[in-house]
Design brief:
Shape: globular
Helix content: under 10%
Strand order of the largest sheet: 3-4-5-6
Oligomer: single chain
Order of helices and strands: EEHEEEE
Radius of gyration: 13 Å
Number of helices: 1
Number of strands: 6
Length: 78
């Protein structure tokens, strides 16, 4: 976990969790204020929006297989 950073976790089929932010492509530093899941590109996968206290809103497109791509700038016009 990044000190003071946002993290994502996955459960490998049991009650334990492991930190997967970096391997999933989610690189955020800051205090989280909220998040939401929605399919923004109609590909059937839930994409992730994260709002940070001082670093604003970040949008991540779900590439499948626990991989995400930041598309904040590309979607700024939406």
């Amino acid at each position: 976990m990044i000190p003071g950073g946002a993290t994502s976790t996955a459960s490998p089929g049991n009650p334990s969790f492991r930190e997967i932010s970096a391997e999933a492509g989610i690189h955020l530093i800051g205090r989280g204020r909220g998040s939401a899941w929605a399919d923004i590109d109609d590909d059937g996968r839930l994409d992730l929006g994260v709002c940070l206290q001082q670093n604003g809103f970040h949008l991540y497109r779900n590439l499948g297989g626990l991989r995400f791509e930041e598309v904040t700038q590309a979607r700024a016009r939406v």
